[in-house]
Amino acid sequence: MLKVGIGPSSSHTLGPWRAAERWIESLKNSKHFDSVQSVAVDLYGSLSLTGKGHATDLATMLGLSGMDPETIPVEDIGKIIERINKDNLLTFGGEIDIVFNPINGIRFSQDFLPFHPNGMRFTARLMDQSEIQATYYSIGGGFVVKEENDAKAVEIKNRNEYPFPVNFGSELMQYCSDYGKTISEIVWENELVLRSAEEIESGLKTVWNTMLESMYIGCHTEGTLPGGLEVRRRSFDLHEKLKGQEKYNSPQEWLLAIRKTEVKFREILKWVSCFAMSVNEVNASLGRVVTAPTNGSAGVIPSVLMYYMVIENHSATFEHVKKFLLVAAEIGSIVKKGATISAAMGGCQAEIGVSSAMAAGALTELLGGTHEQVLIAAEIAMEHHLGLTCDPIGGLVQIPCIERNSMGALKAINAAEMALDRDPDNVRVPFDSAVKAMKDTADDMNSKYKETSQGGLAIGVNIADC
Ligand code: SF4
Predict the structure, then answer these.
(1) Which of 451, 453, 454 maximizes ligand 1 atoms within 8 Å of its Cβ, making it the mutation to test the pocket?
(2) pLDDT beyond 60 at 100
(3) What's the pTM?
(4) Cα separation, 335 vs 434, whole angstroms
(5) For ligand 1, atom 4: residue with the closest CA
(6) Which end of the chain, N or C, is less packed with Cβ atoms under 10 Å?
(7) Nearest residue CA, atom 8 of ligand 1?
(8) 7-148 has which CATH code?
């Protein structure tokens, strides 16, 4: 659920990038790679309608060039794209130079493929002039499948391998009660099936360091965001007002310096907004962030975790970070299985709503809540995002997305506090019911509000006004 990647969108940037990587891998496996003469990509549905604003074309070219979103130096992105545009040459899979003109090499179709709104088809022409094609779907959060059975097969196989297989919140609650474990302990034991304790720790450290770094970069970068809306970066100014006199030279020292600033209620609101917006400003400028569970909502979880680290608990360590991320990931995973984390399927409730639920539950465990209260917090946060539409202006992940992360983070903190005062016996809406309501709302939502930029703010606001 938590992946390091490049902005601005998990489904429209990271997913297509990963799809291109997977396609190249399959060409190598089928021994066709070396005979590829030219390639073309067709983008369908939402991938096409907001593809330009979400940098789908750029991500696809980077994937075709054999670059990895986790490791590519951010400063190289512009150079690689510039070379393709200028010379019409793409180093396919990082190995073979082929002629590639982005104007006719990446085609934007208004059609929707039946399986999912985010479809893309790769075509390779081989030296013998035959063609081979493969279709992939970016199903949200950077996940990519070839077809429906692809996803189901993986889930069924994995479920039987876990000591505590979880599809629903109710199952998770039962394990916690039966075995006297916290949610983070249950998730940890499940994760051990997939990798060693050292690998889990190291992965979580990378996730946290990337989150911290993205907040740090966002808070220290001035100017306007790319894309043409002339959106001013706001976290820089906000941070200047909040930061105090302490000196620091790294993200880690910055964290310690913030602990020394004086905070009352208004400063807390501003810090949380500042952290959330800083990540999404980095995301909007094709910077490196953690997809959590998507890129558009990547600011909520770091912001709430940072709130805990610098305001709520000055003694917090990596152990707290670890628990937080484990709980957050499990909540996101349950929503992904029961509903969706794709705005193209469910609007913004599937992005900001889910990230807020993940953060609310995770914070509740750190604040000493019971496993029931963790899911109560997640439910409150999810419930109060139901129906939220996705209507980004100009197809860019900027308005309303950046501010929306701030709202999702603040709602998560409020949900955690409310849950800590709730008696689980008096709760009327179980978490699983909120997930089902989200799914039903997603199914009923007009497609204009599902990451197409064809409704709401996207058409209600004149771009010239921005
Ligand atoms: S409106 Fe919400 S779901 Fe849509 S791109 Fe922005 S953050 Fe993502």
Answers:
(1) 451
(2) yes
(3) 0.92
(4) 9
(5) 390
(6) C
(7) 296
(8) 3.30.1330.90
